[in-house]
Amino acid sequence: MPKKNVSRYVLLGLLDWRPMSGYDIKKIVEFSIRDFWSESYGNIYPTLQKFLTDGLAEKTVERQEGKPDRIVYHITPSGRKELVEWLNESYEQRRIRDEFLVKFLFGHLLPVESNIHLVETYRHSLEERMEWYRKSVAQIKKQGLKNRKDLLEYLALLQGIFVRESKLHWCEEALKALQEHQKD
Amino acid sequence: MPKKNVSRYVLLGLLDWRPMSGYDIKKIVEFSIRDFWSESYGNIYPTLQKFLTDGLAEKTVERQEGKPDRIVYHITPSGRKELVEWLNESYEQRRIRDEFLVKFLFGHLLPVESNIHLVETYRHSLEERMEWYRKSVAQIKKQGLKNRKDLLEYLALLQGIFVRESKLHWCEEALKALQEHQKD
DNA sequence: CGTGTCATGTAATCAGTTACATGATTCA
DNA sequence: TGAATCATGTAACTGATTACATGACACG
Q1: What distance in Å separates the CA atoms of residue A133 and residue B86, rounded to the nearest whole number?
Q2: Which residues contact B99 (CB under 8 A, 6 or more apart)?
């Protein structure tokens, strides 16, 4: 059976990219991978501390002028080993919870106008996020794909774009159908 | 701030469709809405019991021959009222966690062949699920969309199809790119 | 002078899964 | 005779968020 506590491996994976602080990790989760992963400070900081006692990471303290100290975590060989072991395991899709689709699905209890409004708000947030994707792709095209890590990062981004485009397409279809229903 | 414990409202929404047992609910979650919601017995049964004490649902016991009794829950007006209140609230996308994309993203630590295998397995599970979607759509086309509830259910299904199609398309692109990388 | 950013941390709490128990019937 | 389906339930656990605390600096 596959291991739980996937958070650990996400943090190890990010530390494998480059040494980071908990704050850095939070930023990456919020901006880059937020369409497929979420993580709170209350989970990040204790997990990083646990890496130290488990020997999966080491820390260095970076003093900064006018800013608080940064505690930067570096992955160790045994941290990388544990990450690779997890990557080789099979996985299960758990904890899938899309609040939008639930609200949409039970929307017959509200007036059609509310359903339409819900979809329009959803479409708006998808479009906003697409803007970020476009910028990221432009930046990657400038830098080029130097190695497999870059390629995988780019492809993960590409899935985000594909999925968002299909959801935007769905919004159009759904709005058409709901407006049609409104007329009758 | 939006309410947590969305499970409650999913169960209320399902009971609004028709009276159901905990077992029925689990089946619907496993087969119909599993692409955007998951729920365990350990959460379903206590939640249903709480509905009774909160007056959001009432139960009837159905005796069956050769099978255990079924405890069927019926939503009450105040249950429907609480559901509508929740539907009118704004929502936040929380707890987004796609284990596949994490394994894919950090795959540079494994040989390219492993990355390709991961995507192929993923593609296979997507295709399997598409089969279920095709059957469901065929059934709906036979029955027709009688009301808005049916329409919303159909549209929710449609998003599942759109998203899965875009992910399948992505698989092709990803496999192409990885095979290209393999050659170099 | 208030808000936002940088930066780390913990205690309390909750949400939700897992593992277990029970037990009859049906099917291969 | 063993597995699968039907059906309900609970206790133990854990995973993860929320809310709080601290404090300096930059910006308008």
Answers
A1: 32
A2: A6, A91, A92, A93, A94
Report the residue of B18, B86, B96, B133 to disrupt the A interface, i.e. the one with the largest count of A CBs within 10 Å. Answer: B96
Q: Where is pLDDT greater, at B92 or A61?
A: A61
Test the B interface: residue of A15, A80, A103 with most B CBs within 10 Å: A103
3-state helix vs strand vs coil in chain B, percent to 5: 70, 5, 25
pLDDT at B32 over 80: yes
Tell me how close the Cα of A100 comes to any Cα of chain B, in angstroms: 7
Q: Where are the domains of chain B?
A: 6-88, 99-183
* pTM for the model: 0.93
pLDDT at position A56 over 60: yes
Backbone angles phi and psi of A56, in degrees to 5: -90, -15
What confidence tens digit (pLDDT) does each residue in B142-175 have?
999 989 999 999 999 999 999 999 999 999 999 9
Is the CB of B142 within 7 Å of strand D?
A: no
Q: How far apart are CA A58 and CA B83, in angstroms?
A: 49
Classify domain A6-88 at the CATH topology level.
Arc Repressor Mutant, subunit A (1.10.10)
Q: In chain B, what residues touch A32 (CB-CB under 8 Å)?
A: none
**Ordered alpha helix ranges (H), chain A:** 6-17, 22-31, 41-54, 77-88, 99-105, 112-143, 148-183
Q: Which of A102, A151, A182, A106 is nearest to B79 (CA)?
A: A106
Give chain D positions with protein CB within 7 A: 6-12, 14-20, 23-26
Instruction: Give Cα B15 to chain centroid, integer Å.
Output: 16
Judge whether residue A91 contacts strand D, using its CB and a 7 Å cut-off: no
Q: CB–CB of B96 and A181 under 8 A?
A: no
Contact B96, A31 (CB under 8 A): no
Which residue is nearest to the C1' sugar atom of D22, using CA? A68
Q: How far is A117 from chain B (nearest CA, A)?
A: 11
Closest CA to B29 of B14, B47, B51: B14
Q: What is the pLDDT of residues B90-138, one digit of tens each?
A: 888 777 899 999 999 999 999 999 999 999 999 999 999 999 999 999 9
